[in-house]
Amino acid sequence: MINIGSRRIRQVKMSLPKRFSELVALVSVSTTVFLFFHTQVLNSRIQEIQGILTASASGISAHANSLVAPVVPSTSRKLIRVNGGVTTFTMPKEMYNVSVLNNTRHALKETLFFNRVPKVGSQSMMDLLQRLSHQNDFRFHRDGTQKVETIRLTYYEESRLTTMIDMFVPPSSYVKHTCFSNFTRHGYSMPIYVNLVRDPIERVISWFYYIRAPWYIIERKQAFPELPLPHPNWLKKDFETCVLSGDRECMFVPGEYHDGVGDHRRQAMFFCGHDEKCMEFNGKWAIERAKRNVEQHYSVVGILEEMDITLEVLEKYVPKFFNGATQVYYDNLTVMQKINKNMYKPPVSEAVKNILRKNFTQEIDFYEFCKQRLHKQYVALVQLGSTHPKILG
Fold first, then answer.
1. Element holding 150 (H helix, E strand)
2. How large is the C-alpha radius of gyration of the chain?
3. Under 8 Å CB-to-CB from 176, ≥6 apart: which residues?
4. Quick check: is 177 catalytic?
């Protein structure tokens, strides 16, 4: 039986036409050629996509100036400012991803920490946050007025602060003048970080006159009666003379760690952290650490000079806490603009400001970095269709 079966198989093989074998070979060759060309097309497409992604990544790390550089005239938008001014904002060609730019998605609990920088409009933002707590149903907490504001904490003080904030029942917010704290270092999950920054030169000028304002001195005296009144000669100082005369209070020396002035001149320190190196004024290491913390841990760092965009981005990137922020801010605009507004601040010449800018190079770089990041977040929303610039005319 086995031999008969084998003979039949051989007979079938022999009976197959020769052309059938040729047909099989032709089909095999055709398939190979098709797959080759199809692979080439796929390769070209992959390289094209990689080129787009590389260009997009380069755009994300570019300087702020390249972000708003003119690309196509028809993409320009004129934004209407609250103060009546108009700013032209040019939409870039690069595409930005909202998810990549939104650190809120990493939060494991709804606890917001506003470690506010002094003289950047943080008092108004704190007032706004408190108003929003009622309509958005979250708890609002803030640090009390301090006789001496301790910004940089020891490890033990930082541990107590992070423990206290972690104990708040979500959703909750907390506001305090302090440097950035890495909660994971103390065994807790990171909160949702937000903050504001301001042009560094305008900020130190504002602080100079803020601590000399009569209402500020009266408030401090009422809160802490034992504090002595400042000397009249100190109160009479003006900023320009202070800078030009080489007064120690107005000497901003790069590289100094302990200048003994205590005027919060180090804006980046609030984002750098509690490390001793963060104390170096205008220091490269401190600025780079601050940038990294902003990139990795802050949901939004707003810009005082661009409050319109700041509110829009806060609403969309941190909706639980800032939903409706723009409307609430505008509804209470008169009140917001009067908070901590100093009527005793005379103008400072550009010549004096330019003298200061030479010593604030790294601080200015950090400010521009934060502005660039805020612009990217805003552009991503526009590109997604989640918001639209207000068009003038």
1. none
2. 30
3. 114, 115, 116, 142, 143, 161
4. yes
Give the rounded distance of the alpha carbon of 212 from its chain centre: 31
- Token pair for residue 31? 């398939």
> Hey, what are 305's tokens?
């000079």
Query: Which residue out of 63, 106, 177, 258 is catalytically annotated?
Result: 177
Tokens linked to 164: 């206290």
Strands in 132-220 per DSSP E: 139-142, 172-175, 192-197
Say which amino acid occupies 392.
Answer: L
Type of residue numbered 128: L
Residue ranges of the chain whose pLDDT lies below 70: 1-91, 259-263, 340, 387-393
Q: How far is CA 259 from the centre of its chain?
A: 28
The per-residue pLDDT for 262 is: 63
Tokens of 98: 């909202």
pLDDT in tens, 273-303: 999 999 999 999 999 999 999 999 999 999 9
C-beta of residue 300 within 8 angstroms of C-beta of residue 377? yes
- The CA distance from 36 to 236, in Å, is 83
Residue 266: strand, helix, or coil: coil
Task: Give the separation between CA 205 and CA 223, rounded to whole angstroms.
Answer: 25
pLDDT tens track for 248-264 = 999 999 998 875 556 67
Nearest to 358 by CA among 238, 249, 252: 252
* Closest C-alpha among 343, 341, 361, 356 to residue 242: 356
| C-alpha to C-alpha distance for 104 and 112, rounded to whole angstroms | 10
Alpha-carbon distance 267 to 197, whole Å?
A: 8
